[in-house]
Design goal:
Helices cover about 30% and strands about 20% of the residues. The protein is α/β, with parallel strands linked by helices.
């Protein structure tokens, strides 16, 4: 399990999926140049980062498959962190499952290992936290962890979130609305 984090104080968290949620899904991205962050991510996350930890939870089996190295992944994540910082936001932590599907690890979503590690590392108010993702595994992980979920950019699938948003401006409205009270 790869981890990058800064220090913590008690507050809720936004647990974000990476591919298809904050950046365009590019199967097995191998370099920072392939990371294309959605433009609607910056402003809402900048605002939300004032009250929430911003934590990315991502399955990256490309490492186990030999498509890219941990160093390559670190460069991609540096690009995301730097892009957010340039626009006034931040990423507090990135947790990665590098294992193959079916490996039996406890960190590959929909298992809750990555989320559990973040809850251990940070003082998080889980009752006010949200999992935000575009896939069934993100929604299932949220359900297993008992955390509210927002499905974004993709209404199809078997697992519905507690809420749906077309983009991060929709996420901002949901998080700032009655759901967060």
């Amino acid at each position: 399990m790869l981890i990058w984090a800064i220090t913590s104080t008690m507050r809720p968290a936004l647990f974000l999926d990476r591919d298809g949620t904050i950046n365009r899904d590019c199967p097995y991205c191998k370099s920072p140049e392939e990371i294309s962050i959605y433009e609607d991510v910056y402003e809402p996350l900048r605002e939300l980062s004032q009250r929430y930890y911003i934590i990315i939870l991502t399955n990256q089996s490309g490492i186990a498959r030999g498509y890219f190295s941990e160093r390559d992944l670190e460069k991609m994540h540096n690009k995301i962190r730097e892009a957010m910082a340039e626009r006034g936001g931040r990423i507090d932590a990135i947790y990665v499952c590098p294992h193959m599907p079916g490996s039996g690890c406890q960190c590959r979503k929909p298992a809750t290992g990555l989320l559990d590690k973040a809850l251990h590392d940070f003082e998080i108010d889980r009752t006010q936290s949200f999992v935000i993702g575009d896939s069934d595994v993100d929604m299932e992980m949220a359900k297993r962890a008992g955390i509210k979920s927002i499905r974004i950019r993709n209404e199809s699938g078997n697992e519905r979130g507690d809420f749906y948003a077309d983009d991060f401006y929709g996420v901002l409205r949901i998080v700032n609305g009655p759901a967060s009270k």
